[in-house]
Amino acid sequence: MSTFFRGLRTRLRALVRRQAAAQELDEEIRLHLELEAEQNRRRGMPPDEARRQAAIAFGGVDLAKESHRDALGIRWIEDSIADARFALRTLTRNPVLSGAAILTLALGIGANTAIFSVVNAVILRPLPFPHADRLVMLSEDNPEKGWHRETAAPANYVDWKERVHAFADVAAYEPGGGATLTGVGEPQRIRLRGVTGNYFTVLGVRPALGRVLAPEETWKSATPVAVISDRMWRDGFGADPAAVGRSVSINGALTEIVGVMPAGFTYAADTVDVWRAVGWESSSRSQVFFRRAHWLRVVARLKPGVTPEAADAEFQTVVRQLQAEYPVTNRVMGADLVPLHEFLVGDVRTPLLLLQVAVGLLLLIACANVGNILLVQAVGREREASLRLTLGANRARLVRQALTESLVLSALGGVAGFTLGWWGTRLFAALQPNGMLPVASVPMDLRVLAAMVVLTTATGLLFGIAPALWSARRTPAEVLREGDRGASGRARRWGDALVVGELALALVLTVGAGLLLQSVRRLEQVNPGVDARGVLAVGIGLPAGYDSASQQIAFFDALRDNVRALPGVTDAAVALVPPFGGVGYTSDFHIAGRPANDYGTEIGRDYVSPEYFAALRVPLLAGRRFTAADRMGAVPVVVINQALARKYFHGEDPVGQRITFDKIPDSTSVWRTIIGVVGDVRQQGLASESLIEAYEAFAQNGNSYMTLMARTGGDVPALASSVRRVVARLDPTLALAQVQPLERMEQRSIASQRFIMLLLVVFAGTGFLLAVVGVYAVMAQLGRRRTREMGIRLALGARMGEVQWLVVRHGLRLVIVGLAIGLAGALAATRAIRALLFEITPGDPVTFLSGCVLLAFTALVASWLPAARASRADPAGALRAE
Amino acid sequence: MATPSTDVLRGTLDLLILKTLALEPMHGWGISQRIEQFSRGVLEVNQGSLYPALQRLELKGAIDAEWRTSEHNRRARYYRLTAAGRRALGAETESWRRYVSAVSWILEGA
Fold first, then answer.
1. How close B8 gets to chain A, by Cα (Å)?
2. How far is CA A372 from the centre of its chain?
3. Number of structural domains chain B divides into
4. Which of residues 8-37 of A touch B (CB under 8 A)?
5. CATH number at residue B39
6. What is the pLDDT of residue A73?
7. Contacts with B51 (C-beta within 8 Å, 6 or more apart), sequence order
8. Residues of B at the A interface (Cβ-Cβ below 8 Å)?
């Protein structure tokens, strides 16, 4: 061992102190020569002869030094440095070509860096909690209602927590949620999350200040308690440590702040300001609503040593117990256990992997192009290489030098690409539609760096291996015998392979991007069911003090009338949930006169004011709309959508029939008369089919949170400030929740599809362009080599077109082969993205055909251009050129 | 790569260097002189390969080197046998003897 280290030390010293080591050797040799010469003199030689004989006896001094270095084992490092220097010189000799190669690589590596950073942040990195792999998400499944991974009912949550011993602890939170905060500056809307008392301990996070919530605070205590975010603490409380212990009013309820979370704390990408303990009444546990209504996301931490499978088995047993114990609510209620990370990454996984594959293909195309550039150079330098071989250069040494050249090139491209990728990552994170990525940030960590170093090196080897082997393959005799002509045969085969490969890859990319492009176009053409142009949507939550339905109705009536009176406003209405705002809530329903077991489930429900349908241009298909007369005390009425009329009233006239929102009607059921049928609205966004839906009159129900919608012929953002003034005049303590153009909500519902599509189109476009440039480069090479042949043919009387056809025909053959391979690849690849497509099949013939035609046409033009140039060359000149 | 015959030679040179240094620490020129003397002028060290051999042995840990002042008041790099070198000398001497006797059997038997 010590021997090994001593050797290592000597080597290291020799490398680090190369200069010093060389001097030592010089000195040693000088001494040797002097001693030898002295001895010679003593034997009677004249001084000059003595020195000469000494030198002869020693042999070549330089050779000795050389072998000395070889023995040191540092020669290969010195050689590599020399190779790298040589490579840099070669690269600077042709700056345009080298620049093009580096730029091409930078594009490929940059795109890969950016996408891999995102994939790393979202898919590869663990969640930012201790032992995050022990966290699982529990959700409810109900095959009868088509639920999968839905929110859970609180009573079920409590039973899971108490009965499943595989869970160390189970927490729950209410997804979404907002509230009005007063008592800190101006009234403001905050993002509020109701959580169970053990939420933070289950996640394993600690507060920056004060304490987190306590497990017993899940249940109602004297004062509601809450924990605030770092941002809230800084913006709302000026980072005052005394914020802990203060009381604020949240939706009118006095709440004590007990702690502040650290700045980095985030769950998925949420932007919660205040976490408030849910504070359930313990008497609720036995009530039916606690098991019937579902609004909780449930996170469990597995006990150490328990596998998710074992936990799931026990969990399912408990779920079946609950089905037996509570048949009314849980008869078919299943449940699902999935790692929290998998749940949070969910939908975005497939598109991200798709993008990763796309940039991978892009990089391959880039490699092919750069490989071609190097190959052309290697062929051009063939005489140089064979000369060096003749002079005794080592063949392996030549290969290594050529490889060094490509590695230097890829390293330069890698550095440029990494820089580009850094910007790209920032751009991606900034441009991604809100909430698409379930992470708070996209850091470029060591894994990204390491992956890119590996990728860059692999890239260099990939595109460098062919030219490197080329440079040392042929014997000098061959080169001298065949001249340039022999070279052209083999170089052409390489070039052909590159063209075929590039075209195939480009076709896969183009078809993939084309399918997504068509999907988004079809999404954009979906009839949303409303006309969102010029409509402003404003969410307003009423605090305590507006407790009765009549107070709420009075406020929103006044608001609507005041906004309607604003200049430029043509319509104003209120609704519980605006279009594209999702389904507010759902329930079962029953149609009067049908058998008791024939009930409908999962009907979407909404409260609207009488003007709603006209204001949003929702067409009335039968019956009438609500009027001011449909109010408290009058006959309860509903308007249903077309989907409901179709599904449950096949051909019957629904108008005049009655429904109730109970599964099994009894004497307490409220029967509501259907007065009209309206068109379907894409409530859950453009990509989702309309649910069956029933609208009730707001004036017959009331609610504290409503969305005001106002249509203007003028400027929508300008209307927002007018609406603010109206609200402030009606009640200065109110804060507006959401103020946004309805059209933006419509766009947002397909924003992530559009974003992914846009990226894919950019990548595919770049790949397409690179492939075409590659085809052109290879064909230009071919044209140049055949200039002489063309000259002869032209001189012998061939027509220009015939001569050009020689090159184009070759190009055509490559295009056909490339596209055939590409078609097979695309057919296989597009199947994998079926889930991302909208109303288009993965094998859509139109998309495939247009992709082929576009690529074939461009590639043929790219091969005709060099042919045309070559054929126009002066025949005599072409013949002399060789 | 290297042919068997050069390996034998290289091995011989290493052995001779080790043997020489077993007597006392010595500088490069001294080593070459000693070998010539011992072999009564039969063996001549190819001095171009002496220094690489010294380097090799140093890397193997068989010998150590340090700068010292020589008998004629010159700065010289002195090589010294290490414990590992002493062991190597024993082993290589043994294998050399086997080699020599094997070769002589063949020559005499033939």
1. 17
2. 32
3. 1
4. 10-11, 24-25, 27-29, 31-32, 34-36
5. 1.10.10.10
6. 60
7. A25, A28, A29, A64, A67, A68, B28
8. 27-29, 32-33, 46-49, 51-53, 55-56, 58-61, 70, 74-77, 84
- H or E segment at A707? strand A705-712
What is the structure's pLDDT at B2? 32
Q: Which of residues 644 through 703 in chain A touch B, CB cutoff 8 A?
A: none
CB atoms A35 and B29 under 8 Å: yes
B8 pLDDT band, cuts 50/70/90, is very low
Q: How far is B3 from chain A (nearest CA, A)?
A: 17
Task: Judge whether residue A114 has pLDDT over 80.
Answer: yes
Please list, in sequence order, all residues whose beta carbon lies within 8 angstroms of the beta carbon of residue A222, skipping any fewer than 6 positions away: none
Q: What angle do CA A458, A464, A468 make, to 5 degrees?
A: 135
Choose the weakest-confidence range: A320-334, A421-435, A473-487: A473-487
Range of the domain at B64: 4-109
Give the residue-averaged pLDDT of A479-497.
Answer: 65
For residue range A238-263, what is the model confidence (pLDDT) as tens digits?
999 999 999 998 888 889 999 999 99
In this structure, what token pair is assigned to residue A516? 């997504």
Nearest to A427 by CA among A124, A767, A114, A120: A114
Which two tokens mark A26? 């010089």
Write the single-letter amino acid at A43.
Answer: R
Cβ–Cβ < 8 Å for A675, A637: yes
Averaged pLDDT for residues A23-30:
78
Residue of A nearest to B1 (CA): A394
Each domain of chain A, given as residue ranges in start order, spans 2-73, 132-347, 543-733
Q: Do B52 and A7 touch (CB under 8 A)?
A: no
* Residue A207 CB neighbour total at 10 angstroms: 18
What global pTM score does this model have?
0.75
Chain A residue nearest residue B84, CA to CA = A3
Task: Name the residue of chain B whose CA is nearest to A64's CA.
Answer: B48
pLDDT digits (tens, 9 = 90+) for B10-66: 568 888 888 888 888 888 888 888 887 777 766 777 766 788 788 888 888 888 888
Tell me how far apart the alpha carbons of residues A542 and A675 are, in angstroms, rounded to a whole number.
30
CB-closest option in A58, A60, A71 to B56: A71
Cβ–Cβ contact A71 with B under 8 A = yes
CA distance A131 to A168: 13
- Distance from C-alpha of A532 to C-alpha of A683, rounded to nearest angstrom: 12
**pLDDT score of A793:** 79
Beta strands of B2-107 (E only): which ranges? Answer: 26-27, 63-69, 75-81
pLDDT band of residue A31 (cuts 50, 70, 90) is: confident
Q: What is the pLDDT of residues A174-191, one digit of tens each?
A: 987 788 888 887 788 889
Nearest-angstrom CA–CA distance, A404 and A83: 6
pLDDT of residue A211: 95
Residues of B in contact with A11 (CB under 8 A): 59
Which three-class secondary structure string do you get for A531-573? CCCCEEEEEEECCCCCCCHHHHHHHHHHHHHHHHCCCCEEEEE
Query: Hey, are the CB atoms on A70 and B52 less than 8 Å from each other?
Result: yes
CB A346 within 8 A of CB A268: no
Chain B contact set for A24 (CB, 8 A) = 77
Res A432 pLDDT > 60: yes
CA distance A5 to chain B (A): 9
- Alpha carbon distance A206, A458 (integer Å): 43
Nearest to A68 among B52, B75, B77 (CB): B52
The minimum CA-CA distance between B103 and chain A, rounded to whole Å, is: 30
Task: Identify the band that residue A274 occupies on the pLDDT scale cut at 50, 70 and 90.
Answer: very high
Q: What is the mean pLDDT of chain A?
A: 87
